[in-house]
Amino acid sequence: MYNTQNITTIRQHLLTREETVAVAESVTSGHIQAALSLADGAIRFFQGGITAYNLGQKTKHLHVDPIHALASNCVSEKVANEMALHVCTMFSSDWGIGITGYATPVPELNINHLFAFYAFAYHGKIVHARRIDSRVQPVLSVQQYFTDSVLEDFIHCLHPELKMVQGFSAPEKL
Questions:
Q1: In what helix (H) or strand (E) does residue 95 lie, and over which residues does it extend?
Q2: Does 99 have pLDDT greater than 60?
Q3: Going by fewer Cβ within 10 Å, which terminus of the chain is more open, N or C?
Q4: Mind listing the pLDDT tens digit for each residue in 44-71?
């Protein structure tokens, strides 16, 4: 169901660096958390996560700006950034992953193209944020596509030898 090689690579990098990760999800409905939990010894690097689907839960638990979230239907780079930053605090982790988006069309909002925003936070700073688009359907396939894409991009962020990949710097271990 998930790219197990990516999960193993993330596990190895985090254990080598003695770092942890937590996840705040919306559009992927816990798939990133499920994927990370499949790693051997996940308890040693995966702190946990939260799936917050609506504005009320995102503002209450992840301190997402309610005015901006309401104006953007909770789908924006800013919302993903806030989710990534606050999940780190919530779970006392080095890294945070935040993702929000659309896995199904929402015709009443004129959303016919499926996309998500995701962000990676490291020690209180956003180190990478990006929009990802999906052409796959149905919902489960979209969620799996977003999950695998985010985890693959996270590997680039963790890889210490890569100084510049897709416009972000891999942070050094503090």
A1: strand 95-101
A2: yes
A3: C
A4: 999 999 999 999 999 999 999 999 999 9
